[in-house]
Amino acid sequence: MLKVSVVGVTGYAGEVLIDLLLGHPQVRITDLSSRSIVKPKKISEIYPQFGGRLDLLCAPLDFKRIAASSDLVFLALPHTVSLQIVPKLLKAKKKVIDLSADYRLKNVKVYKDFYGARHTDKRNLKYSVYGLPELYRNKIKSAKLLANPGCYPTGAILALAPLAALNKIDPESVIIDAKSGVTGAGRKPADGLQFCEVNEDFRAYKVNVHQHSPEINQVLSRLAVKKLKVTFVPHLLPLNRGILQTIYVNKAQSAKRKAQNIVELYKKFYKNEPFVRIKPQGQFPRLKDVVGTNYCDIGIQDFGSRIIIISAIDNLLKGASGQAVQNMNIMYKFPETMGLI
Amino acid sequence: MLKVSVVGVTGYAGEVLIDLLLGHPQVRITDLSSRSIVKPKKISEIYPQFGGRLDLLCAPLDFKRIAASSDLVFLALPHTVSLQIVPKLLKAKKKVIDLSADYRLKNVKVYKDFYGARHTDKRNLKYSVYGLPELYRNKIKSAKLLANPGCYPTGAILALAPLAALNKIDPESVIIDAKSGVTGAGRKPADGLQFCEVNEDFRAYKVNVHQHSPEINQVLSRLAVKKLKVTFVPHLLPLNRGILQTIYVNKAQSAKRKAQNIVELYKKFYKNEPFVRIKPQGQFPRLKDVVGTNYCDIGIQDFGSRIIIISAIDNLLKGASGQAVQNMNIMYKFPETMGLI
Amino acid sequence: MLKVSVVGVTGYAGEVLIDLLLGHPQVRITDLSSRSIVKPKKISEIYPQFGGRLDLLCAPLDFKRIAASSDLVFLALPHTVSLQIVPKLLKAKKKVIDLSADYRLKNVKVYKDFYGARHTDKRNLKYSVYGLPELYRNKIKSAKLLANPGCYPTGAILALAPLAALNKIDPESVIIDAKSGVTGAGRKPADGLQFCEVNEDFRAYKVNVHQHSPEINQVLSRLAVKKLKVTFVPHLLPLNRGILQTIYVNKAQSAKRKAQNIVELYKKFYKNEPFVRIKPQGQFPRLKDVVGTNYCDIGIQDFGSRIIIISAIDNLLKGASGQAVQNMNIMYKFPETMGLI
Amino acid sequence: MLKVSVVGVTGYAGEVLIDLLLGHPQVRITDLSSRSIVKPKKISEIYPQFGGRLDLLCAPLDFKRIAASSDLVFLALPHTVSLQIVPKLLKAKKKVIDLSADYRLKNVKVYKDFYGARHTDKRNLKYSVYGLPELYRNKIKSAKLLANPGCYPTGAILALAPLAALNKIDPESVIIDAKSGVTGAGRKPADGLQFCEVNEDFRAYKVNVHQHSPEINQVLSRLAVKKLKVTFVPHLLPLNRGILQTIYVNKAQSAKRKAQNIVELYKKFYKNEPFVRIKPQGQFPRLKDVVGTNYCDIGIQDFGSRIIIISAIDNLLKGASGQAVQNMNIMYKFPETMGLI
Q1: Which of A261, B76, B300, D150 could serve as B8's disulfide partner, Cβ 3.0–4.6 Å?
Q2: Which residues of B94-113 are buried (b: 16+ CB within 10 A; e: fewer)?
Q3: Which residue in chain B has the smallest CA separation from D292?
């Protein structure tokens, strides 16, 4: 049994991660911690839903205790906090799956621009592996520090990867109109996220300046081997879980000339992927079909010079904790879908 | 034109009050203020929905400015804050409609038990009028300090008043199972009121210890001329506005003997009331029919020894700001429904 | 007092229309009817919220009775049904405000393609006036048959009109990502609109084939004096009321050259409009600010070669019944905001 | 591997049942059928969420095919339909878990009064076992025809069983104020269950005449060995899943005399139950903690002469399909929590 610990259990990602790890036949949770905990507290007092299932304390974050008790550490911490603990964990020969953004962006200047903080661990940043299994499975197998992708980037990149990799899109034309449930914003109290401020409302936020844009650009540009800069507008849906992204691209000149069945192209690109499902021609995904699962559903339609792609994921599963477990499965040679289907 | 001011505009009651007063043909809003405002700010910056309708500043709370500019002052402040400003306003010969609980409970010991603070203005408390027009219209006409009823008490008392006044209920048998939308909890950020903590959830809170119980008991006991103590359990509904209360009472011994059409009894009791609607036999109200209105809808059915009564109101209208305007109409001899239908 | 009747009261638009007309000081509702009513029924039995406010029967649709009792007839009927009654009403010298799509599209072939029915009243179609006051106020003044705009087109056209009229956009680049509350789909029971099929879900529908696309194209092409064909993808939001549309356009070559303050340009374009509000630079509208009002809020931002515009309306007010009343006000020389603010 | 089939897969209970059975290590789904299916259809076309997980056809209901392929048959059919198929299945020596109400009420007159149909299978009714494991585990072990409890009765009976069994309640005093999510009403389109008719609304229905009352009375009366008749008022919550019931009882005279820790009494009563969790003194359950699980959470508080009990379950799990799997586990000697935790 693999010994794992979760740091940062009071957020939604931490909560879902515990639930998944509890159901995983090859792991044992050995430590739960949180920065906001002052003295140890039963996890079932924090989350009554774990009553009867898990009898473990949640303790203050203590590097030594965590390192002593576990082989693999999941970090579900706010951005910039991981930077302080990752170097120590790696030094202690622990493997780390980091759910924050701290080790995703390879360019520290871009990191600073979007997260407002200087990157203090360039050494480990160099070796971090971006944990999107559909694109980087081989690297993930031997990763020591895994940067688990952001929720929006997961859905957006999977939706665009086939076209980007085959150079079929005009790199200036990509528009991503994203809509996310409220768990995407985290659990801490905020004026704008009170029930009555979100319920029966709908709004865009961080219009074209969201911190996930550079992550999308970084991965797609690498795939396309040319600079790609998306227009990205996220919106807040009055519901708990799920991200649906409606994506508009113009075909590259070369792609306009020859007709091609785009749906078949996607099916082929993802034919061995256990967690990507391509909708039949003329159908598009909805949140209901993916919420509660680790799937990414994708629908595509060719409208002549423009292609519309819609992808849907559960932001806390394929967009966070589910993908983290999928990555763990790959890193430890467990069946990739173990504990997830 | 009556000059009115609203103190405490950043809460939901204040917001709805401004909206109602804007549509009232006999009043002019002369001052808007809030304790949380540091320097004057356009009201349309706080509430974009008032853009194009109201071009007024919201200023810090300043007793003198308010007294100088208005004849009537609405206080939409948290409990205990009104105690500090009411004496000054009354001294300056202003009339006050207080939406807080500070001048509702005549017994200061009970006030302290339920609101956790000593009552510091017993002198004015003695003269405050409880603003439930259906029971106290005459007193309201000449009120100088009006204590606007709580949201739960409004729906509960209107549902029980006919039976209490006619002494038809066993005073120990009253059970009020109340359900409220989230605006009832006010606007300030709180962990338990974040969108994802309320959406797709339902829970009871303050089980049989809610501060509105003594208010209900005070009014019903006075009506029944005997001590009445209700069991009161409020619950939080995942919706913005509305309170529905399901009430169970056993008949008094005397009432059991003679058959009587309870629906007709209610219709008669409320026959001249513009804002109480009694449902036909066998029908019960729903929130949808009252939200956005100042009505209280009531359904009653006689099940032998037990009677079930269901009442529904909009907690921000008949349960707060709508009733405040109704009270103003009565105090100033405007038609009672003016600005409300 | 203007005598008005509403045909088709059992839908959401009919319901809201009654509410608005009841609050309008210059009209009297003289007749309510519905095709689904077999024998006359009190309107307060259909809609309990009108209890105490309106004591009128809702009767089966009877052309003669309606014509005899009213000067102006509002038709809130499903598409193709208006075609049968409009000719008769016009012949009887009644004015008509039609909320259906039957008299909006001037090209009957396009009508057939999108609504699946042959247009049987080309004669009157020729004279119908498209009721978007911000663009066609003068024609509306003398309209006898007014085609009230669709909900999506209202928000989309108002968002794009300034750029289209000034020829600042690449006509092939317009992408409208639209999101609507569920009242937009009408009231009739449908599998896909049951509560549990919509709640906690989000999905696109009629991707780029929605019947409102040609309406948007018709109006914008006329404005731009060149053919404009939008990509239009509507989505279903899990909420009752409101439409928010996020619109992406590339600038026309000519517009790229000279810098211009787009927000100011919009403010100027709409400076006399009582129901269009332009957000300050860097701000975007949300549903909450317009739901329950007749406003269209618009936010715009210039991102270099691409402009993003977001508009928000209440689909049942500015997107249907509110706009119908606004049009009535213009047709009968009432103040344009009467009964609406 | 146990071969199981599900009849009636198009309802919510059927859908959830498939999901649970797919995750159960000891069963294999061999047949899926529905009365509303005319020709066989892939289950993933009906429920896209099963895409990639289950590649099985859903076929029209055919008794012979079902009997031939399976050892155990789950019936998730509307009331009265089970009566037609159960006798045949039992004759063919198949075991049956019936999720409908057809074999729950032992008194056929009461069945007729509440379900409006004559009971046509009294012979098998006599042998049916009421599948509430916490009360009837021993009988369930050898059941051939298991009547799976109703959703409301499950939560209500578990909340009241300790007090009823120990004769601590006044049998005329029990009031159950129940609130259910919308999946409880089934999936078929109905006017009153359209999204906009439920969202932002709350209402009572079938006030004190709901068909689940006699089921609750039957079980509790048997436990208390005296006639018990509850007052039962269900309400419709604007959310998908979950039932919370707030229950008020007066103590029996005998129970008033001696003080007793009620929470401890409940903990003792349920101490070996894997799916009942008793809240600590002063705490009450909420839906969030049980939705998605097979738990029933119960909070109790003693208020002198009156006791308040609140129970919460997921209506589709402990209230239907989860409990059906729990019953299967008991019938086939699998660990009781298998596939459920």
Answers
A1: B76
A2: bbbbbbbbbbbbeeeebbee
A3: B200
**D47 interaction partners in chain A (CB closer than 8 Å):** 289
Each residue's pLDDT tens digit, D87-112: 999 999 999 999 999 999 999 999 99
Alpha-carbon distance of B15 to B27, in angstroms, equals: 16
Torsion of CA C23, C24, C28, C33, to 10 degrees: -60
Please compute the mean of the pLDDT values over residues A263-284 and round it to a whole number.
Answer: 97
Instruction: Tell me the residue length of chain B.
Output: 341
Hey, what are D253's tokens? 């005279």
**In the 8-state DSSP scheme, what is residue A268?**
H
Of the candidates D145, D144, D10, D175, the one whose C-alpha atom is nearest the C-alpha of residue D78 is D10
- The shortest CB-CB distance from C242 to any of A202, A246, A310 is to A202
> Searching chain A, which residue's CA lies closest to the CA of residue D291?
A49
Give the tokens for residue D139.
């009988």
Please state which of the four CATH numbers 3.30.450.20, 3.30.360.10, 3.40.830.10, 3.40.50.2020 is assigned to the domain occupying D152-315. 3.30.360.10
Kindly report, residue by residue over B31-68, the tens digit of the pLDDT: 999 999 999 999 999 999 999 999 999 999 999 999 99
Helix or strand run (H / E) with residue D164: helix D151-165
CA distance C238 to B200: 13
Q: Is there a contact between C231 and A291 if contact means CB atoms under 8 Å apart?
A: no
CA A58, CA A41: separation in Å to the nearest integer?
5
The per-residue pLDDT for D188 is 83
User: Closest approach of chain C CAs to the CA of B278, in angstroms?
Assistant: 10
Q: In chain C, where does the domain assigned CATH 3.40.50.720 lie?
A: 2-127
CB contact under 8 Å between A200 and C241, yes or no, is yes
Chain B residues in contact with D197 (beta carbon < 8 A)? 288
Top residue of D174, D232, D235, D307 to mutate, by most chain B CBs within 10 Å, is D235
Handedness of CA C329, C334, C335, C339 (dihedral sign): negative
Q: What is the pTM of this model?
A: 0.97
What residues of D are in contact with residue C187 (Cβ under 8 Å)?
Answer: 194, 196
A79 CB-contact burial (10 Å; exposed 0-12 / middle 13-18 / buried 19+): middle
Task: Sort strands C95-98 and C145-147 into parallel, antiparallel or unpaired.
Answer: parallel
Backbone Cα Rg of chain C: 20
With beta carbons less than 8 A apart as the criterion, state whether C270 and C297 touch.
no
CB D214 within 8 A of CB D124: no
d(CA B19, CA D322): 49
pLDDT reported for residue B149: 98
Q: Is the pLDDT of residue A258 over 80?
A: no
CA distance readout (Å), D52 to C21, C75, C91: 54, 49, 61
pLDDT value at position D260?
Answer: 81
Determine, for residues A49 and D290 on separate chains, whether the beta-carbon distance falls below 8 Å: yes
Q: What are phi and psi of B297, to 5 degrees?
A: -95, 140
Q: What residue in D sits closest to C190 (Cα-Cα)?
A: D189
C296 catalytic residue (yes or no): no
In A, minimum Cα distance to D284 occurs at: A48
Neighbour subunits, C (≥3 Cβ pairs < 8 A): A, B, D
Q: What's residue C243's pLDDT? A: 98
CATH 3.30.360.10 segments of chain D: 152-315
Q: What is the dihedral of CA B266, B269, B273, B279, to 10 degrees?
A: 10
Retrieve residue D95's tokens.
């075991």
Angle at A227 between CA A222 and CA A228, to 5 degrees: 90
Does residue B100 register a pLDDT over 90? yes
Class of domain D2-127: alpha beta
Asked if A283 and D51 touch (Cβ cutoff 8 Å), the reply is no
